[in-house]
Design the sequence.
C-alpha cells in the first residue's frame, strides 16, 4: 500500500475510529432506556439503510420492497427459534442464506431489464411476502404474530437489557459499515460507479453491469436479513405489521435523506428520520395548537420533498458540497 | 370448493371487469405520466382518493351529484397541475431515483392533509342511480357497476379522441416518443409534462368518484388502488395506453377468479405474482433488443 | 483531492449530528439521574395512555383518545380522593403509538422510566399490545389493554401484569352461533378480516360452533383494505351454508354487507362486535344494514335495558358526558378506553398514601386483579385466573332496524 493510497483511505479509517468511540461512550451519558431503545431502533434502521444506500447510490437501483428482505430475516429467526428450537445464531445465518438466495434469483431475472423494473419487482415482492406472512398461519402465527422469541445469548452472556443490545446492534452496524467502505473502495465499487455514470459506457469497456448490480442487491438483502434477525430478538415478538409497504417506503426515505453519495449517510438518514418523528411529536404542539400525528406526517413529507428537490444527494452531502459523485475522478 | 354454476363464473368475471375498470383508469394515469415525463408516479393512487373525497364533500354541500362529480374532477386536475409545478418542474433533470422518491413524498403529504381535513372515518357516496340490481344469466350486477364500466368506456373514448385526433394529443404523443425531437418542432416538454399530470389527475379522480358508492371513501384508499394500478400498467407494458387498459381489466378478473377459485387470502398475492411473471417474460423479450442496442452503440464509437 | 475533502466533511457532519443527538438526549436523561425510580414517587400519581391516533387504526384510536381527554378534563375539574379522604393528584400522560409496535416500545419505556407512571392504559391494536407485553412484564407495571385479542391476557400465568377491557370474541361468538342455531340452521359460512381481530374471531366461532354442533362449511378471509368481496360472497352463495357469520370492522364490514345484499343472498347475516359504531350503518346504507344481527356490549342497547341493570346508569352517564364533551356519538371503542382509565382510577382511589412507585404499581395490579367494576363494556369480575373478567352475560344481541340499533333478546328470536 503506497502512501497516496493510505491518505486516500485515511478519512474513512479515522472516521470509523471516531465513530466507534462515539458509539462506545454514548450509553455512558444516555441512561434512559427510552433513548437507548430509540437508539437500538435507529441502529437496526441504519443497517437496513446502509444496504439500501449501496443499492441506490452505487448500483443506481431502487428497491420499493426492502421490507420483504427484512421480514425474511426476522421471520426465519423467529420461526426457527420458536417452532424448531434452533440456536438464534444458526437461525440468523440461515436467514441470511435464504434471503440472499432469493435476492440473487430475483436480481438474476430483473437485471436483464434496463430501467427501473427492479423498483416494481421489489414492490411486488414486498406485497407478496407481507401477504404470505399473514396467510401461512401454521408457521408465521398469521396476523396475530408469533410471541416467545428468545433473547440472544452467547455462552453464558445474555443480551437482556437495552445497554447490551445497543452495543450489539451498533457493533454489527459498525462492522458492516467498515465492510461496505471496503467494498466501495474496491474494484467492485469503481465498477459500480462507472455503471451508475453510464451503464452502456461501462459495458463497452468490459464491465458486466448486471453481475455487479446483482452482487449489490444480494449484499443489501443480506444486511436487511441481519437487521430483521436483530429486530425480532430485541422485540421477542413478531407480527407482519412492521414489514408492510409503508415500511419499505420509510427505508427509501431514510436512504435518500442520508444521501446516496456515501455510505456514511446511512446512520445519519436513519437517525434523522426517526429523531425527526420523535422531535416533531414533542415540539410541534408548541407551534400549532392541538397538533397531532397528522401534522407530523405532513411535515415529514414536506421535508422529504424539499430535500429531494434542493439536495438530491441527501442531507449529508447536500449541506456541505455541491459535487456529484465523489472520489472516482481524483484517483487517476 | 363449492359447486359453481355458469352464473357464478360469470359473476366472477363481471365483478372482476368492474373492479378492473378502476385499475385500468389508474394504470392509464401512470402510463401517461411515465411516457411523457419518465416519472414513475407513486402518488397516482392519491388522485382517486382526492376525487372521491371532493365529490363527497361537494355533494354534502348540497350540489347535485353530476355537478359534484364535475367540480371534483376540476379541483383534482388543478391539484395535479399544482403538484407538477411545485415538485416536478424544479427537478426535471434529476435522476429517476430522486423523482420516484419525490412522488413518494407527495403521496405522504396528500394522505396526511386528507387525514387532517376529512379525518379517519370513511364516507359514503350514494349510488348514481339507486335501484334493484340487474340479473344476467344468474350473475347479479348492481347498477353502480354498470356505471363504472360505462364511465370507463366513455373516458377511454374521449382519451382516444384527445390523443389521436387533436393537435394537443399529437404534441403529447410526440413528446412521449422523443422529447428532444418534439421540442425542435415547437412542442414545449414543460407544458406537456403539465398536461400529462392534469390528464392523469383527471383519470384518477374519475376512477375514485365512480367507485366511491361501491367501496366507501377513506383517506388511505389510494394506496392499494395505486399499487394495483402499477401492476396493471406493468402488465400492459408501462408505455402503452391500450396495454394499461387490458392490464387493468385482466388484473381485475384474475383477482376475482383467484379469490373465488383459489383462496381469498392469496388473491392480492396472486395479482402481484402476475407482475413478476410479466417482468420475467419481458426480461426474456427485452434482452436481445438491449444487445443490439449495445452493438450499435459500439459501432458508433468505433 | 476534491473527494478527499468531501469525505472529511461527511465525517465531520456525522460527528456534529452525533453531538446534536447528545444534546437532545441529555435533558431527557437528567431527571432520571436526579430521582432514582424507587425513592419516592412524588405526590402525583401518573397514568400512561397510549392510543393509535394516527396510522391505519386511527379511526379506533381517535375515539379512545377523546375518551381519555374527557377523563382528564373531569379529573381537572372534580379530582379524586384517596381512602383517607385526601385529594389525590392524578395526571394522564398521552402518547401516540401510530399503530406501530416500533413506536410504542420506546414510548412505553418512556412512560415507565422517565415519566414514572403507576399504570399504563393503552395500545389500540392487538399486535401492538402483544408487542408491549415483554416490556411490561419485565418492568412490572400494570397494563390495561384496549385491544380485543384474547392472546393479550392468555396464558394468564405469563400475563401477570396485563389486563384488558374489550370483550373477547369468545364472549360474543357463542351468541352468533346460538342465534343461527335457534333459526334451525346447522351449516354456516364464516368470513373474517385478515388481521389479529378477525383471526381471533374465526377461532372463537370454531370453538362455539363445535360446542353447539354447528358445522362450518366455508371459511374465507377479506383484507381490511378490500373494496370488493363479491368473490367471497359468491362462494358463500354457492355453498350450502344457511347463514353467514362475519368478524370484521367497518369500512370493510360495511362494504361486505352492501355486496351481500347486492348479490341477493337471503340467509341471515350475523356480524360480530367490531361493527358496533354508527358509521357501520351509514356506510353500508340503511336499507342494506336492515336485519343485520350482532352481539355486543350493552352500550348500544342502553335504552332497552331493564332499569335494575347495573350497567344502565353507568352507560347513560358515559354516553351523555362523551357526547357533550366531543360532539360525536359514543362508541364502544371510546368505552374501552374509558373503562381502562376508570379501572385504573378505581384502584388508585383505594391506594394508601406514601407508597413508593414500585409499591404503587404492585398495589394497583393487585387491586385490579381483585376488582369488581361496572363499566361500559360489562361488569368486570377480574380474578387471578381471568384478566378480562367478562362473560357472555355481558353481551347482548342487537338487530339493525330502520338504521337504528334495536335490542334483540333471545325471547324475540
Sequence:
Amino acid at each position: 500500500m503506497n502512501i497516496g493510497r493510505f491518505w486516500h483511505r485515511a478519512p474513512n479509517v479515522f472516521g470509523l475510529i471516531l465513530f466507534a468511540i462515539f458509539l462506545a461512550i454514548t450509553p455512558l451519558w444516555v441512561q434512559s432506556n427510552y433513548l437507548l431503545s430509540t437508539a437500538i431502533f435507529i441502529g437496526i434502521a441504519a443497517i437496513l439503510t446502509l444496504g439500501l444506500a449501496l443499492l441506490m447510490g452505487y448500483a443506481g437501483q431502487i428497491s420499493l420492497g426492502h421490507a420483504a428482505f427484512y421480514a425474511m430475516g426476522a421471520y426465519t429467526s423467529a420461526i426457527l427459534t420458536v417452532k424448531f428450537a434452533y440456536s438464534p445464531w444458526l437461525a440468523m445465518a440461515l436467514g441470511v442464506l435464504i434471503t440472499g438466495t432469493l435476492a440473487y434469483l430475483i436480481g438474476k431475472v430483473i437485471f436483464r431489464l434496463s430501467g427501473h423494473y427492479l423498483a416494481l419487482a421489489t414492490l411486488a415482492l414486498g406485497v407478496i411476502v407481507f401477504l404470505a406472512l399473514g396467510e401461512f398461519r401454521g408457521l408465521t402465527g398469521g396476523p396475530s404474530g408469533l410471541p416467545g422469541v428468545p433473547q440472544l445469548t452467547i455462552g453464558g452472556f445474555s443480551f437482556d437489557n437495552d445497554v447490551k443490545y445497543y452495543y450489539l446492534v451498533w457493533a454489527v452496524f459498525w462492522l458492516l459499515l467498515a465492510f461496505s467502505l471496503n467494498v466501495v473502495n474496491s474494484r467492485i465499487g469503481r465498477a459500480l460507479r462507472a455503471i451508475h455514470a453510464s451503464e452502456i459506457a461501462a459495458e463497452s469497456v468490459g464491465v458486466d453491469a448486471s453481475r455487479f448490480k446483482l452482487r449489490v442487491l444480494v449484499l443489501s438483502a443480506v444486511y436487511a436479513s441481519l437487521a430483521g434477525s436483530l429486530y425480532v430478538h430485541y422485540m421477542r415478538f413478531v407480527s407482519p405489521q412492521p414489514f408492510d409497504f409503508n415500511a419499505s417506503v420509510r427505508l427509501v426515505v431514510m436512504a435518500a435523506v442520508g444521501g446516496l453519495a456515501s455510505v456514511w449517510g446511512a446512520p445519519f438518514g436513519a437517525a434523522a428520520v426517526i429523531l425527526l418523528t420523535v422531535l416533531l411529536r414533542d415540539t410541534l404542539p408548541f407551534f400549532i395548537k392541538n397538533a397531532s400525528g397528522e401534522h407530523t406526517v405532513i411535515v415529514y413529507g414536506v421535508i422529504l420533498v424539499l430535500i429531494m428537490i434542493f439536495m438530491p444527494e441527501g442531507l449529508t452531502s447536500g449541506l456541505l458540497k455541491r459535487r456529484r459523485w465523489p472520489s472516482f475522478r481524483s484517483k487517476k | 370448493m363449492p359447486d359453481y354454476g355458469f352464473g357464478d363464473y360469470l359473476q366472477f368475471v363481471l365483478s372482476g371487469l368492474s373492479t378492473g375498470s378502476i385499475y385500468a383508469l389508474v394504470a392509464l394515469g401512470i402510463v401517461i405520466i411515465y411516457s411523457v415525463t419518465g416519472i414513475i408516479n407513486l402518488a397516482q393512487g392519491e388522485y382517486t382518493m382526492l376525487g372521491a373525497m371532493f365529490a363527497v364533500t361537494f355533494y354534502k354541500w348540497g350540489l347535485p351529484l353530476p355537478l359534484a362529480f364535475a367540480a371534483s374532477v376540476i379541483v383534482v386536475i388543478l391539484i395535479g397541475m399544482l403538484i407538477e409545478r411545485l415538485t416536478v418542474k424544479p427537478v426535471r433533470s434529476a435522476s429517476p431515483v430522486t423523482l420516484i422518491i419525490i412522488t413518494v413524498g407527495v403521496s405522504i403529504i396528500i394522505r396526511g392533509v386528507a387525514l387532517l381535513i376529512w379525518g379517519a372515518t370513511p364516507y359514503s357516496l350514494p349510488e348514481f342511480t339507486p335501484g334493484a340490481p340487474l340479473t344476467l344469466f344468474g350473475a347479479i350486477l348492481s347498477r353502480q357497476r354498470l356505471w363504472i364500466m360505462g364511465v370507463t368506456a366513455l373516458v377511454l373514448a374521449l382519451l382516444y379522441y384527445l390523443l389521436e385526433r387533436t393537435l394537443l394529443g399529437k404534441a403529447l404523443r410526440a413528446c412521449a416518443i422523443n422529447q428532444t425531437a418534439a421540442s425542435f418542432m415547437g412542442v414545449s416538454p414543460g407544458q406537456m409534462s403539465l398536461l400529462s399530470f392534469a390528464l392523469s389527475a383527471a383519470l384518477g379522480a374519475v376512477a375514485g368518484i365512480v367507485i366511491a358508492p361501491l367501496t366507501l371513501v377513506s383517506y388511505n384508499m389510494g394506496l392499494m388502488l395505486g399499487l394495483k394500478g402499477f401492476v396493471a400498467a406493468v402488465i400492459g407494458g408501462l408505455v402503452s395506453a391500450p396495454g394499461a387498459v387490458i392490464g387493468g381489466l385482466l388484473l381485475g378478473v384474475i383477482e376475482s377468479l383467484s379469490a373465488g377459485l383459489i383462496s381469498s387470502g392469496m388473491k392480492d398475492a396472486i395479482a402481484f405474482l402476475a407482475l413478476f411473471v410479466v417482468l420475467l417474460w419481458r426480461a426474456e423479450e427485452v434482452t436481445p433488443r438491449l444487445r443490439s442496442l449495445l452493438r450499435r452503440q459500439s459501432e458508433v464509437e468505433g | 483531492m476534491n473527494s478527499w475533502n468531501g469525505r472529511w466533511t461527511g465525517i465531520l457532519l456525522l460527528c456534529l449530528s452525533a453531538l446534536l443527538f447528545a444534546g437532545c438526549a441529555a435533558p431527557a436523561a437528567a431527571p432520571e439521574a436526579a430521582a432514582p425510580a424507587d425513592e419516592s414517587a412524588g405526590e402525583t400519581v401518573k397514568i400512561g395512555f397510549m392510543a393509535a391516533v394516527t396510522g391505519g387504526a386511527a379511526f379506533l384510536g381517535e375515539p379512545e383518545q377523546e375518551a381519555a381527554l374527557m377523563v382528564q378534563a373531569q379529573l381537572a375539574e372534580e379530582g379524586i380522593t384517596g381512602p383517607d379522604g385526601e385529594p389525590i393528584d392524578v395526571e394522564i400522560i398521552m402518547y401516540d403509538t401510530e399503530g406501530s409496535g416500533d413506536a410504542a416500545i420506546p414510548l412505553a419505556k418512556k412512560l415507565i422510566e422517565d415519566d414514572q407512571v403507576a399504570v399504563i392504559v393503552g395500545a389500540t391494536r392487538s399486535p401492538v399490545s402483544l408487542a408491549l407485553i415483554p416490556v411490561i412484564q419485565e418492568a412490572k407495571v400494570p397494563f390495561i389493554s384496549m385491544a380485543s385479542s384474547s392472546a393479550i391476557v392468555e396464558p394468564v400465568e405469563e400475563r401477570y401484569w396485563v389486563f384488558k377491557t374489550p370483550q373477547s370474541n369468545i364472549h360474543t361468538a357463542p351468541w352468533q352461533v346460538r342465534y343461527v342455531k335457534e333459526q334451525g340452521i346447522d351449516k354456516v359460512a364464516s368470513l373474517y378480516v385478515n388481521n389479529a381481530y378477525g383471526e381471533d374471531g374465526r377461532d372463537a366461532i370454531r370453538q362455539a360452533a363445535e360446542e353447539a354442533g354447528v358445522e362450518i362449511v366455508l371459511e374465507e378471509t377479506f383484507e381490511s383494505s378490500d373494496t370488493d368481496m363479491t368473490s367471497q360472497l359468491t362462494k358463500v352463495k354457492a355453498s350450502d351454508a344457511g347463514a353467514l357469520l362475519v368478524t370484521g370492522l367497518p369500512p370493510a364490514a360495511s362494504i361486505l354487507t352492501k355486496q351481500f345484499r347486492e348479490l341477493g343472498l337471503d340467509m341471515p347475516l350475523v356480524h360480530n362486535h367490531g361493527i358496533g359504531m354508527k358509521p357501520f350503518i351509514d356506510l353500508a346504507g340503511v336499507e342494506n344494514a336492515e336485519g343485520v344481527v350482532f352481539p355486543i356490549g350493552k352500550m348500544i342497547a342502553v335504552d332497552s335495558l331493564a332499569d335494575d341493570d347495573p350497567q344502565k346508569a353507568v352507560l347513560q352517564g358515559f354516553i351523555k358526558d362523551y357526547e357533550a364533551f366531543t360532539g360525536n356519538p359514543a362508541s364502544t371503542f371510546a368505552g374501552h378506553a374509558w373503562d381502562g382509565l376508570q379501572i385504573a382510577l378505581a384502584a388508585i382511589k383505594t391506594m394508601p398514601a406514601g407508597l413508593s412507585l414500585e409499591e404503587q404499581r404492585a398495589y394497583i395490579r393487585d387491586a385490579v386483579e381483585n376488582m369488581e367494576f361496572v363499566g361500559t363494556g360489562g361488569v368486570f369480575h377480574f380474578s387471578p385466573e381471568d384478566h378480562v373478567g367478562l362473560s357472555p352475560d355481558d353481551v347482548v344481541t342487537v338487530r339493525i332496524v330502520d338504521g337504528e340499533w334495536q335490542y334483540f333478546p333471545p325471547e324475540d328470536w
In short: Residues 322-332 of chain A have pLDDT under 50 and may be disordered. Chain A has 15 helices and four strands.
